[in-house]
Amino acid sequence: MLCDDLAQLLFPRVQHTPSEAMQASVRLVLQMLVRGIESGLGVEQNDAVPRSWDILCRSGLLREPALLEFALARIAEEHISRRVNEGRPDIFRQIAVEMLDSKDSSLAQSARNLLVAENSLELHTPERLIDQMPAELLHLLLWRVVAVFQSASAGDSRAYVDAGNILLSRHDESRTLNAAAAKLVYFLPDDKRAKLADPVLAGLSLYASGLAQEFRISHDRILRFIDEDSVAPFLVLLRARDCDAATAMSIVQYLRGLRADDYRLPELLEQFAVLKTEEARSAILRWRLGAETNARHG
Amino acid sequence: MQILPARLALPIKCVVDQDGRLIAADAAIRRLHISNSGHEGGILAVPGLLDLAFLCLRTGLRFERSVFVADKDHDIELWVEAEKQNQNVQLSVVGWQERDSSHPTSQPFKSSLIQTPDRKFPLSMQINHAAVVLRASGTLLELFGDDFIAAGFDDHFELVDQQGTIADLLKSPDGIPDRLSIRQRSTGTEREALVDVVKSGVNKVVGVHLVFLMPEVGVADQDSSKEVTRQHNSGMGLGRHFASAVRQPLGRILANAETIGSELNGPVLEQYSSYAKDIASAAKHLSELVGDLEDLDAIDRPEFKVAREPVEFGDIARRVSGLLALKAADHQIALVHPDEATQCEVVGEFRRVLQIMLNLVGNAIRYSPGGTEIRITIDPAASSISVEDDGPGIPEEDRERVFTKFERLGRSGDGGSGLGLFISRKLARAMGGDLIVEEGTAGGARFTLSLPTS
After folding, report:
1. Do B264 and A62 touch (CB under 8 A)?
2. What's B11's DSSP letter?
3. Residue A82's closest CA among A255, A261, A207?
């Protein structure tokens, strides 16, 4: 009996696949990363796709969860930034701007790195994108790309290795947007911390980093929660913060680019109202432990 | 957030060799290393720091990261700079912030718990005020699996000679006793535990630390408990350990198959993409099936018990509607639930009642045609709650059969396992109530869950 039922369960219809648009966006980000690395290695860029792309695809590298996570987070970041920047108020990113004048040189440097990184990201070039990669991810992708050119070159391939080492030595993780924001949040003076809960005052990066630090979820995962089709995960984060309903709705409205009279807001308010703070925190704890388990087991 | 005690001067440094051994360290890091069961010249016993050191060794790059460390009664968030020096790594702690470990979302990483079993008291755990397990010694994690963290205390244990649950005791104005007798649900083993109340900075009780008093027979007892679990697992049930073990590879199959199927890694042949999507779908359903079988395993145990607590059907109905609203909308189905004024208090276990209702409404969504509605109604006089759909209904002769194991009434390929209703009725009866199905007013199916009021 059990076997029959298991057999029936084995090949039911597919329930969910990412949209065409999302697949195309992810492919575009990954191609930009590879193109940025190839450019750093001195490889000529004449084709529509990077030269090592096909081999990398076949090697399975582009199924690396960390790379996909990075790409998806950049897409989410782009979506949210575009929505937020449409009506950017004057007080936007007030915390980082104030911290530029901090007497603590480390804080001031982090604020400078953050603002530079945020502005660089808007340029959307492959080089700027690889500047934003966590060091270990750049290390992983770089040496795979180098390996493609090494195996393809008939003669001495030492030049690719040397160029790779130079590229890595130039990379400074502390200048990435995520790292700069995380450091700023960590060292932020107590009198500024309350502002972190306000995405307008904090700016997207610091706001996401504040949530990331509080709930110990990665900055990139927070960005994806904010941008996901379903608002539910973000509502859970806000409820776990003990946000009141009015504040939560105004934050959702701001970061999701909703108008004040958007027909979805009453429904979201209803969803938010049934959430309990303790349940929200337990849910986040489970998300986090799940993510850590996945990370530990590759 | 508490900041570094004044006596600690930053930066605090240590050096780790290529095998992960701590070869030099300032006093504060040495203390963390020793308190995490590390020893002189041994592998650095602070998992977050060790991970960072290995990352630095592997890549040769410089890193600046925050690292969480579990200390005795609180967590510490460190800001650490890691730099490779010849064959070693120098770690410099430039930030040290102590964080309140009572916050359920700010618990130490599980890896640190698994790697640092408390040898003196093999069975110890910390739970929060809602009776959720926050920390546990390595022995308990071995016994109950990784899912033990974040599980409900009441899922595994019950109080002996005490009314209510441990959460009730935590809320009680009389306070919680210094010692408690606790029975392990799966084996019936009783243990006495020392209770250490955990308070927040404003002296509010936020949880308890429990240390089971059986040090002299700890290992033997642990082995016998394992044996009971092993024997149980070898029978018809799947058991928690098996379910935990299966979930993880299934999750990886699912993730990889979805990645291939959605062609995120570039184009693949059409039929391969289709195969990958089928694999992903099968993995998703197997994962749900494992969850059902795990429940089945639990309720088939003779010692299976449910908590008795006040449950309000109206609240349940609104929660279920909220949780399944999007799924219903996907199927163009409207969910109608009772208004706030409709209330009916019964006695049962809240999460089990919610589980039953999610199953009933989920089934109704699965089998109802688009453009129809699903009505959740409450009858306070009968202390019952019903889910009625406008689907094809269930023929009278099949109405009892749907509550038997794996009964699908000939349906297939819709993602159901044939266990949901069987489990739901078992749970309803374990709570002193029942679950029945009748013909609805519009010819669809109406499932009614009734529970006692006292």
Report:
1. yes
2. P
3. A255
Tell me what ipTM this predicted complex has: 0.81
Q: What's the mean per-residue pLDDT of chain B?
A: 76
Chain A CB within 8 Å of residue B418 CB? yes
B41: Cβ contacts below 8 Å, ≥ 6 apart: B21, B22, B23
Residues of B within 8 A of A285 (CB-CB) are 104-105, 107, 132, 150
**B-interface mutation test, from A4, A5, A23, A272, most B Cβ less than 10 A away:** A5
Does B11 touch chain A if contact means CB atoms closer than 8 Å? no
CB contact under 8 A, B111 and A286: no
Residue located via tokens 């929200």: A280
- B34 φ, ψ to 5°? -65, -45
Which residues touch B384 (CB under 8 Å, ≥6 apart)? Answer: B313, B344, B378, B448, B449, B450, B451
Q: How many residues does chain A have?
A: 298
Strands, E assignment, B165-234 = 179-184, 190-199, 205-212
Both tokens of B290, joined, read 């494992």
Please say if the pLDDT value at position B392 is more than 70: yes
**Cross-chain CB nearest to B150 (options A214, A274, A286):** A286
A23 touches chain B (CB under 8 A): yes
Angstrom distance (rounded) from CA B199 to CA B175:
12
Chain pair A-B, CB pairs under 8 angstroms: 152
Q: Which chain A residues contact residue B325 at CB under 8 A? A: 267, 271
Please enumerate in sequence order all residues whose Cβ is within 8 A of that of A97, keeping only pairs 6 or more positions apart, or say none.
Answer: A111, A115
Separation of alpha carbons B9 and B13, rounded Å: 11
**A260, two tokens:** 């004040």
Nearest to A17 among B106, B132, B262 (CB): B262
Min distance A63 CA to chain B CA atoms (Å): 6
Q: Are B298 and B423 in contact (CB under 8 A)?
A: no
Q: Pick the closest to residue B320 from B371, B277, B374, B367 (CA basis).
A: B374
Q: B55 touching A, CB under 8 A?
A: yes
Burial class (CB in 10 A: 0-12, 13-18, 19+), A100: middle
pTM, whole model, 2 decimals? 0.52
**In this complex, which of A182, A274, A282 lies closest to B150 when CB atoms are compared?**
A282
Which structure tokens are listed for B153? 């205390």
B417 in contact with A at a CB cutoff of 8 Å?
A: yes
Cα B259 → chain centroid: 26
Q: Is the pLDDT of residue B217 over 50?
A: no
Q: What is the pLDDT of residues A137-177, one digit of tens each?
A: 999 999 999 988 888 877 677 889 999 999 999 999 888 99
Structure token pair of residue B389: 């759909």
* H or E, element range at B309: strand B309-312
Q: Which of residues 326-365 of B touch A (CB under 8 A)?
A: 326
Termini Cα distance of chain B: 45
CA atoms within a 13 Å half-sphere pointing along the CA-CB vector of B253 = 18
Nearest CB to A285 within list B79, B104, B260: B104
Strands B373-379 and B334-336: parallel
pLDDT digits (tens, 9 = 90+) for A198-253: 988 888 999 999 999 988 889 999 999 998 888 888 999 999 998 888 889 889 98
Among B70, B80, B75, B78, residue whose Cα is nearest residue B96: B78
Tell me the C-alpha distance between B113 and A289, whole Å.
12
